[in-house]
Amino acid sequence: MTIVLTPYWQDGVQKLKSSPRPPPKPAHGLTPPVLDDDVHVTRCLAQLRSKTSGLEKYIYLSMLKHENEEMFYKLCLENMAEFTPIIYTPTVGEACQKWSHIYRRPEGMYISIKDKGKIMSVLKNWPKVNDARISVVTDGSRILGLGDLGVNGMGISIGKLSLYIAGAGIRPSSTIPICLDLGTNTHKYLDDPLYLGARHNRVPEKEMTEFMDEFMHAMSVVYPKLLIQFEDFSTDNAFRYLERYRNQYPLFNDDIQGTGAVVLSGFLNAAKLSSAASGQPLTSHRILFFGAGSAGVGVAMQLMSFFTLQGLSEKEARERIWLVDSQGLVFDARGKLAEHKKYFSRKDYSGPQITDLLDIISYVKPTALLGLSTTPNAFGPSVLQTMAALNPRPIIFSLSNPVHLSECSFTDAVQHTNGTVLFASGSPFPEQRHLGKMLYPGQGNNMYIFPGLGLGAILARAKQVTDSMVEASSLGLADALTADERKDDLLYPRIERIREISAFIAKEVIRAAQKANVDRSTDLRAMSDSELLAFVNSKMWNPTL
Ligand SMILES: O=C([O-])CC(=O)C(=O)O
Ligand SMILES: [Mg+2]
């Protein structure tokens, strides 16, 4: 029936008869005599744990989600710390790289450049048009730190939406994973006979913008209640599309705003610990960003509010931030700069180009070093030791994804700072025992933010996602630490509490939407905070097993 639920070239090979959702339970006699749900939970978990590679586990769980969605989410919710590295970062990265090889069945929508002119009719093919509330849309052009994966990027949209369902109780049938196929510039895929996407380079910018304009308009008409999360677009397009559409449609960019918010939140908690150790005020922090792509600059923009919340002016806040890109320190006198780097480009330095990170650290004397560069091991022993020499509790956030692209591991960070580091990473690292004390790495991943931010925006029926809503999600997350978590110097709450955290964030986001006058569910305005929180919780979907 439809060309959109399957990669198009398979049209006619594997047609869907109805919904891609799991089939109803078989009739009596068609299952084993004793198939107790509780026992089956144990069986499924044992089957998962019997797989030895992350990718095999990913494939197994993807199959389980298809066969028995309730079981999948029940297990996921009960084993968050075990499941997230499989269905999400880092394993989802490997799954995307091999997507065209491990592909089993349609999940989500593929919209191709060939659909230009008829995108609306394609979108109508989705089986649950009226249920649609949240879509994660990628064009695969920069998946995690893995580069242009073309149509293989579908895995990231699916992974993020699984976390919306698990982490914020969004109803499964209201989620739409979308991958736009505008070509790929990765020759390995163009040459791969199994590649599932269009076999040409990415189309020129003008054609892509026309396609995006049509796509966004069609989405708003076909799914009037939909919130859109842009994901893993290449840097220029990420900024361009966010600015182009954010005042017109309810949307946010997860890499710019979600990552920005999650890092601001962890930074707020880290800066308090760091300032308590140094005796220096919060306003004196100096942040060095290693990496100036969409995530790096997005985070830097968001961290501006760390300083403005402490009473600094915008200009003063901006002066607390330094950027480093592949050519070294970013400063005006260096010459022509990409548009998105200009705001933070230093005006107060005009000497020779400083390229070496150690030299840059000696010049800036940062209290915090944040990596969003996708350069593995860029924070080597001497960088870490220098940061520890400058600060009693250095803040080191190694945020590139997945794990193998991280700027440093937690083990290295602990070792080379003698355990003083305040650490967060984009991908998960195991905890470390150091001098008899257990130290915990923070996972500064947008997975703490987007489920609650999205849920809040959906429940408020927000017309737009404002900066104030994003900031509210961040401050809500920072406030969500329990006394026990603070005792362990955690920068983020334990992931097992994701539902509780998402509900709290959603409540804060709804309040921010009301203040900004972008809410359409105006009946929520009269509720007290506790009523609103109860309302948010009552809207969460739960597996019934
Ligand atoms: O997906 C993740 O783990 C975080 C993220 O958005 C990215 O790295 O692009
Ligand atoms: Mg991303």
Automatic annotation (TrEMBL):
SUPFAM superfamilies: Aminoacid dehydrogenase-like, N-terminal domain, NAD(P)-binding Rossmann-fold domains. Keywords: Metal-binding, Oxidoreductase. Divalent metal cations. Prefers magnesium or manganese. GO terms for molecular function: malate dehydrogenase (decarboxylating) (NAD+) activity; metal ion binding; NAD binding. Residues 14-33 are annotated as: Disordered. Its cofactor is Mn(2+); Mg(2+). This is Malic enzyme. One of its GO terms (biological process) is malate metabolic process. It comes from Tetrapyrgos nigripes. Belongs to the malic enzymes family. (S)-malate binds at residues 142, 401, 445.
